[in-house]
Amino acid sequence: MRNTNLIVGAAAFAVIGGVVAAPSSASAGGLDRYYKQHLAWKACTQGPDDEVGKELDKAGARCADVTVPLDYANPGGRTIKIAISRLTASDPAHRIGTMLINGGGPGPAIDMPPYMKGVMGEAGPRFDLVGMDPRSLGRSAGVDCGWPSATWIRPAGLTRGGFDRQVTFEKDLAKRCEQRGGDVMPYISTANIARDMDVVRGALGERKLSYNGASYGTYLGAVYATLFGDKVDRMVLDSAVDPARWSPTLLRGTEGANEQALAHWATWTAARNAKYGLGTSQAKVLASVHRIQRAALRKPLSIGTYKVDDAMMPGLLFAGLQDDRDEPRASLAESVAIFDKAARTGETVQPSADLEDGLKFMLTGDESRYGSGQAAIICGDASAPRDVEGYWRDIQRVRKSAPLFGPLTYATTPCTFWPRPPREKPVNVTTSVPALIVAATGDTRTTYASSQGLYRAMSGSRLITLRGADVHAPYQAGYGNACVNDLVNRYQVTGVLPAGAPVCEK
């Protein structure tokens, strides 16, 4: 994913048996004032250190805050602000409409319009492109639990002791959110983010909204299409989440794709052994990876100011396997070579710039807001199993077939220990809204089977298959496959889905 790692009617809602339903008009539930609000457009830069705002201003975008109810069942109560950016169509004579963009994560997306304009080819200049920070993230009522890490993804490692430490880590993350999450936390969910999207549509004065979402953004788009199907124009869903499997355990089932992608990377790295020194064959490179992990179990690797143990290493590998182009493969090979040197010498080895960024993300709280907001959404959507021993049994079972990534995908999460259950059931995604789904057969985050699951749930959709690529979000990530790009951009311009189920080759 870029942030790198789901009913026809308007947006008035009544609580019925714990599930929020959508009546037929915005005004019916007291939401009319939100839909008809006036937006005050302003510069995006919020201070001297605001690099996102500076880039948006440089590109010609403008920003605004959209007022939405904290609780859609009580629209007369407390409100929050949802931050959006807009880059207006540079070809106004051929303007198609407004397209809202989400890059996955879940993470902030206010920065995305200038980037996506470049990705979208001939379609880019014909849309007003809107980025929106989902509630709990970025500038939209951001949640910060004061985490010591920016991510809740922490593998269990090679031993029971590593698993126990992982459980303690996740318990601490959940406890921090219970203590510092505030009274906004119960109202953070994908369903409410979709409702916020529709308020944004109304405040922009648009009858319909186009949408381009990747990874988590595909689930968000599918929920929006289910709740507000008559408000959808064009919809692109890139590397899709199977809505039937959206939960805190959504990474389960991806370990095989990651082990396969690691093997493909090992073949690439073996052909460059003179540079990286990790082995002259796929088998030898993989043996080096496992040897390094065992060394990190005996003594954590000293990488700059950081210590990398056997549990952390698979997480860093996982982060490097979502793109099979030469540049990301080289970055991962360089990182593993640094681990190798630290394991062989026992000395402190300085990280590369990419590895420094990864270690900082995993081992410091500098971006605590990112992980906190992400977990608030995922834990707010669905409950996780709470039987800790069940996680350990699953890890032991899957370790045989996926020794590196099984202990990551089956590990506990903060949601295992979340202090409160979701306020409503997940939206049952089932819709005939036309949508174009893009899926790579080697996707390591949302597997090809996951995209097929969304394809089945959206009966009016079409599926583009990119065969032979280990890449996540091939369209939004700018993978550069001409076949995929041409099909997606033609649809975004014409609004006509391609016939059949097109297959593109890597």
Automatic annotation (TrEMBL):
One of its GO terms (molecular function) is hydrolase activity. This is Alpha/beta fold hydrolase. The keyword Cell division does not apply. The keyword Signal applies. Residues 99-322 form the AB hydrolase-1 domain. Residues 403-504 form the Peptidase S33 tripeptidyl aminopeptidase-like C-terminal domain. It holds the Pfam family Abhydrolase_1. Keywords: Hydrolase, Signal. Belongs to the peptidase S33 family. The lineage of its organism: Bacteria, Bacillati, Actinomycetota, Actinomycetes, Streptosporangiales. InterPro entries: AB_hydrolase_1, AB_hydrolase_fold, Pept_S33_TAP-like_C, Serine_prot/Carboxylest_S33. Residues 1-21 form the signal peptide.
